[in-house]
Design goal:
CATH topology of the largest domain: Pyruvate-ferredoxin Oxidoreductase, domain 3
CATH superfamily of the largest domain: Pyruvate-ferredoxin oxidoreductase, PFOR, domain III
Strand order of the largest sheet: 2-3-1-4-5-6
Strand content: 5-15%
Number of strands: 8
Structural class: alpha/beta
Number of domains: 4
CATH architecture of the largest domain: 3-Layer(aba) Sandwich
Amino acid sequence: MGFLMGMAKSPQPIKIAILAMGGEGGGVLADWIVDLAEHAGHWAQTTSVPGVAQRTGATIYYVELFPKATPGADGLEPVLALMPLPGDVDIVLASELMEAGRAVQRGLVTSDRTTLIASTHRVYSITEKSALGDGRVDPEQLLAHAEAAAQRLVCFDMAALAEQEGSVISAVLFGALAGVGLLPFSRDQFEATIERAGLGVKSSLRAFAQGLSQAHSPVVVAPAPAQPEALKPVPQNPVMRECVDQVWAMLAEPARSLAIEGVRRMADYQDPAYAQLYVARLRRLHALLAQDPLDLMAALARHLALWMSYEDTVRVADLKTRGTRFSRVREEVHAQADQLLRINEYMHPRFQEVCETLPAGLGARLWASPTWRRWGERWLSHGRVVQTNSLGGFFLLYAVSAFKPWRRGTLRYRLENQRIEQWLNLVCQWAPTHPALALETVWCQRLIKGYSDTHARGHQHHDRLLALVAQHGALLSAEQLRDLREAALADEHGKAFHSTLAAQGWA
């Protein structure tokens, strides 16, 4: 380590970098460290470099500590740096796993000197969330890179401990910093620092103790306990009970559990009769399979349920006006019982979505009319902010959700069910002779997601792939279809998709 101890000829400050996102108390943590050092007879300095992490804003706080009683210093004040330099940091504190990865990427963590203290929880970035496919960074890879880069790695889920103690993650990080034993201060001095701050002292001390304990004894991840065999649900509704009985008799695990959840989802989305339609569609494929070596039924159970519960305006309004949502939001923002909570819904419906919510005939005529389309798009050109905690905002969305019984008559329902039937027909066509191709066709449903332009592009790519399967199924291999699907998910502009189409000779 580049610490003062053992370096009398060239004394060096203790250098600490803190990487934290907004609202996690990174500034408080830096101030605690400065206060701790100054009360223990050290010079201390903190600076911050704000940045953007495409989540809630990220800041690098940099702290340098230097003892006043330093041999050879002759009472002169040291010159402390304003920002961390790659390869010249003793301790890095990261409030989240991606922040630890950013510290490694910046060169702040080195194997010859740096102790990395990081929380293992994840807050996904906008890039990860907006990816057409699964854009999440593999946490195992992040941990592996962090472990390889650091001289010592101390990591555990600090967010869970902070939540458990009703505190913030900075208190757990402060405890972990005390626990690693790299600073020349006692536990009493650490705790006295929290007490001097005077805010949330009791909860912060509890969180501090948890962090200190875990740093002393890092968590050993026990193997997940074996899951007990799922019990057969027994719905009260006779139609739902019949659907469950059919799924239970028809499928084995893992398809059974997915299909049971699909039945529940269909009833919640529409009604028990819709769950019957879901089961009937599953039976169409099951009747064609002598065996299911590729888990075709499990894939269909999952993706058919996702597609049949497409998120139209009625579904969005229904979800946003449920009592469970209001309870969940209050819990997520830690609102107290005596606090008022305001929820702003930012909505930007398109004229096409309005048409698709109308009865099929009327919606199709309005969408086909250039005059109505120009008027509607001009009227809806600006987004709306709806406060669902207000009577007006709540009843507006509640009125839209009340259209659920008439969903089967809407233009959107007609269009989606035509596409579902086309997709299912192709799966059933190729399942008996080319099961691998049928499985990849099922997985093409992953392209259909999101809203607005993203949803439209996904449908365009999906329709193009289904056309290839329909026209060239005998010549199209499962591997080619998989490569095309992954290319379609690679970027929102479709460059990789069209490039792969050309490379395979389908352009």
